[in-house]
Amino acid sequence: MGLAVGLRATVRHVVTEADTAIQAGSGDVPVLGTPRLLALAEAACVAALEPHLDPGMTSVGTGVALEHRRPSPIGAEIEVEAELTELAGRKLVFAFIARHVGPLVAGRDPDHDEELVAGAGSVERIVVDREKFLARAALRPG
Hints:
This protein is of the alpha+beta class. It has a single domain, classed as Hotdog Thioesterase (Thiol Ester Dehydrase, Chain A, Roll), CATH 3.10.129.10. Helices cover 20% and strands 39% of the residues. It has a five-stranded antiparallel sheet. The longest helix is centred in the first third of the chain and has 16 residues.
């Protein structure tokens, strides 16, 4: 594996009705739901890792800390950046930040404008052998 602290990746996403708290069952407002924000953060972590894992290996989530700071309405463009900040054997810890980007916020500096931060936090993942993990995860009777 070629894993090292500092690996990073970014995913961009335009909020749709399917991403809302209403659809996720986490609220009754038509804005980006917290579960969907977490899914975008994890997607950024996976994107950072994928090219560096040995064949047959994958990562699975084991913990998360998330602060959802600002609402993101349908049509808002979100950019989520994840960076590997800690590597301890198979355990990986990522810091992530989600910002509003795109035409609605043109001319504002996303690195220095706290009002653009939709959320932030950390994601913990662990590297596993895919086949062994799936074998352990299979439902066993009794």
